[in-house]
Each structure stands twice: as C-alpha cells, then as structure tokens.
Amino acid sequence: MKQMLQRMLTNMMQMKRRWLGMWAGVVIWILWMIFGFWAIILLLILGAVGFVIGRVLEENQSWKQVVERLLSERYGD
Known about the structure:
Number of strands: 0
Radius of gyration: 18 Å
Mean pLDDT: 81
Order of helices and strands: HHHH
Number of helices: 4
Number of domains: 2
Strand content: under 5%
Largest sheet: none
C-alpha cells in the first residue's frame, strides 16, 4: 500500500502543472457537488488560515511581528 501511494505521488509530481490544476478543479467540483457552495468556501478559508498558521510556526516568527509587517505594508506611510 505504501509503495502504491509513493508511485502515485511520484507520478503526480511528474505531471505538467496544467494537468494538476485540472485535477484540483475536478476535486473541488466534486466536493462542491457533495457539500455545497458555502461549505466549500468555508473549507478554502479554513485551509488558507491553516496554511498561514503553519507557515508562521514553521518560520518561528512571532504573531506580533507578522501583524506589524502586514499592517505596515498596507497602512504604512
């Protein structure tokens, strides 16, 4: 089972990006059909929040520095 998953992952990484994008679109469409529009929007928002939190923790940044950097870029002089 583990070898099969590794082969599938290797094959996916060798695909062109347009095909990966197409498969991502198909998966999102299937989720949309099963769960509905607003559930998918919530899923995408929560996924983005999780990505940001993971990136901050991975880079060992403090939340204060992240917020200051975001606000200074947007509302700076």
